[in-house]
Task: structure prediction
Amino acid sequence: MSNVPITVAHGDGIGPEIMDATLHIIKEAGARIDIETIEIGEKVYLSGNTAGIAPESWDSLRRTKVFLKAPITTPQGGGFKSLNVTVRKTLGLYANIRPCVSYHPFIKTKHPVMDVVIVRENEEDTYAGIEHRQTDMVEQCLKLISRPGCEKIVRYAFEYAHRNNRKKVTAFMKDNIMKQTDGLFHKVFDEIAAEYPGIEADHWIVDIGAAKMADTPENFDVIVMQNLYGDILSDVAAQIAGSVGLAGSANIGEHISMFEAIHGSAPRRAGQNLANPSGLFLGSIMMLVHLNQPDIAELAHNAWLKTIEDGVHTYDIFKEGVSKEKVGTKEFAQAVVDRLGQKPETLKPVEYKKVEEIAEADRKPIYSVLNAAKKELVGVDVFLHWWNGSYYGAGTELGQKLEAAANGDGLKLVMISNRGTKVYPKGFEDTFCVDHWRCRFMSDNDNREITHQQVINLLQRVQAAGFDFIKTEHLCFFDGEPGFSLGQGQ
Ligand code: NAD
Result:
């Protein structure tokens, strides 16, 4: 079998040491790889490249399509962009996979039987970073959730479960509050779950789901989440497994994938042969599985489990009474190499199977191509920056002024809300209001459809009356379904 080219970056801090250790183990295990080395991180940043990665390095990544990356140091101070975010977004690495496993009784953990895989969406949500200051008082961050984005990540979670013989996929979301964005995620989850009858599917509102995961992680298997929830809860999951320093992760794209440890470059430990290479090593195991070299992945992973079980531990997981031998980075790697061919006895040995290669042309699409829906414009939310000096009760004054100035031409004001809570008509005096108002206009007769020209005319009347409009959002029906939420209390 021929070797597969991969791109490797040794990174900063402890990066070079843990990368050498990782490569030593997987090469000794027989990994069929040819390495192209690129430079990323601190040196590249400090040479004036704010992305931390040189243009020719992108060529290597595009060529090999597989990236094994050691942690890097992002220099302090402004102007330096996160390399991870740049690489993930530029290369479309939409799925972040993080197995969180406890190794009881060999590594201290509160949860002896934890084996949870977090599948986090990596491209959208509030991480689009579209933020604006809108008024004196209010900042906004847009949460964008797309149907293909949900389809990609949910399908990935079910495919992962299927390939890895996992029994259940759980979705966490907050669709009791975010009925449109998280509602879409939930809907797509239900649709795709129905295609995998052999895998149990369940879902939790993220708050109680997170609490349950932290309390009884043994009840979870694969958990799929949007970007922000996944960012937070994948750290929680890794931490409660007792093994942040031990966790690896994969960032999977349609064409290119990246594998790494979840920890950083630990600069204070650098150059002392102290660091634990296990996080990056477990990332490299995910890479070998991705490269369809399950024999090598299984051999190396079981040798690593045996090493942990034999109590050969680096300083960070060394515990008197449990551990047998405190070793450095190199010695740990050699201990794993010495155990190639052995399997753990107490911990469960891993098994990886070869996946039948599917020709590009025969692959099932991971997202659907949508037909355009029938879209009807039925109203508009006009957002105003307006302030009369009072945090209470101003909705009535604004509502009356706006009705007088802006109603007409087939449109009428139906509601004003302040940060989502209805304050007009019939608002409560008790509602705390800031200087950011959402004013909803809809058709003033039964003919619910309105035109873009009516919206433009409305904005002209609003402006002529001296109001500062800061943005609009159109209210549409898509194939007869409303594409907007009601105000709280509406
Ligand atoms: P860190 O993960 O580097 O270190 C946190 C703590 O964990 C430290 O006490 C460290 O000694 C210990 N630790 C981490 N990995 C270890 C290992 N393999 N073996 C033994 N001990 C280990 O986090 P930090 O100190 O907040 O960040 C240091 C630098 O890493 C920063 O520049 C940060 O930007 C960067 N960082 C990079 C990545 C990445 O490249 N993926 C991720 C996180 C942080």
Q: What stands out?
A: The chain has a mean pLDDT of 94. The first helix runs from residue 15 to 28. Residues 375-482 form a domain with the Alpha-Beta Plaits fold (CATH 3.30.70.1570). The chain is about 30% helix and 20% strand.
